[in-house]
Prior knowledge:
By secondary structure, the protein is α/β, with parallel strands linked by helices. Helices cover about 40% and strands about 20% of the residues.
Amino acid sequence: MNCGECPWLWSTWVKAPILAGSDLLIVSACLPVVNPELFKRISSGKTVLLACPERENPAYYGKIASMIRSSKPRRITVVTVDGSPHCFTLHASANEAEYILGEKIEKEHFVVVNGSSLVRISPHAVRVARYLSVVNEILEENPEVVKKLEALSKEYRASLELE
Length: 163
């Protein structure tokens, strides 16, 4: 699929015929540029909606909940770029939509690490990430986890240089 053909989440009518009974992929708008081959592979056979919380209204949870209620997609898959504070809201919004509707939604969460590796993320990991007090407790109990950031985060490495 050519990303130029993909509609945007925020601009798509919640009852658009393409959504009805679909296997819906909500994907970071930058992914087709970051890794075109991966984007092509994961979008095959799916209804793709691009999303960018930096470009669009980041209050996706209501929009996603309305799409689910109105169009009943079979499944929702959220794929974002790992480490993006903006993209995180897409994952949290899919979980929040499930909460708002009060029903189980067949959904999966994935992140693309360093532009190449597709990693499945537990919906619980998304929930924990919203609560910084819990994340802080995990880090205090497992300080070695922070070392993994050195390989992933330029921001973290820069913060170490400033200390």
